[in-house]
# Entry
Amino acid sequence: MSTIKPLVKGFFDERTYSVQYVVADPETRKCAIVDPVLDFDEKSGATATRNANAILSYVNEQGFEVEWILDTHPHADHLSAARYLKEKTGAPTAIGEKVIEVQKLWKGIYNWPDFRADGSQWDKLFAEGETFQVGNIPARVLFSPGHTLASITYVIGDAAFVHDTLFMPDSGTARADFPGGSASRLYRSIMEILSLPDETRIFTGHDYQPGDREPLWESTVGEQKAKNTHMSTCRTEAEFVKVREARDKTLSMPKLILHALQVNMNGGRLPEAEANGRRYLKFPLDALEGAAWDDQ
# Structure
């Protein structure tokens, strides 16, 4: 792994508890944007670009050039701003090649027969182990399924962007009960991440602020191994699966999953406007388990 330390700036979205990142090469001033959020209010149906514009303002203030817009997976809890940022910067969008499996799965759930489930909605589909660069900083892709079929980790210099695999040590790990998810696969993905050098910086994609503490999103591999509430106590895959699946059974589905997936599996594109000039989301009924009243 490269010991080069990119500059990393996190942007926390309080509404979805998501963390977005700008990761930059201080020498060339080139950067990548990781997992940007498109603002969406499910009650009014309103969309906005406040999060994405804050990222653009920071990029401009720092004199950075956006070289990549990177998604770690099709998100279930927020809409992706990747398409909007591509329009504003001209930078290519990218995601892992297994996104095609997610597209095929959700194409059926949405009954979307004309949808192109081929990954063509992104400019680049990364393969497992593929390398690229952010400026002069070497980067590579780890396939990290379990939370979803398509989840990947970007290792850029000494920084690993793990999104929904590991949370901060006091929050444990991500759920694995979405369609296509697997606690066993998640465990193996996490173990690969934790095989990176102990000093590797870990940047997680969500922070749910246990105990109402301030939002946090940076740790290290060493800290995760020593203190993660799941990984430091579960000594085997079987133990982890038992703990993870028991926890997942207590969780209702994310409130935006059915809103978000139809946008995010389409590279962050909102639906085309209909004859009246308005856009409409499609909402399948009784498609998923995990209703809110199941927790009561």
Q: What stands out?
A: The longest helix spans residues 50-62. The radius of gyration is 18 Å. The mean pLDDT is 95.
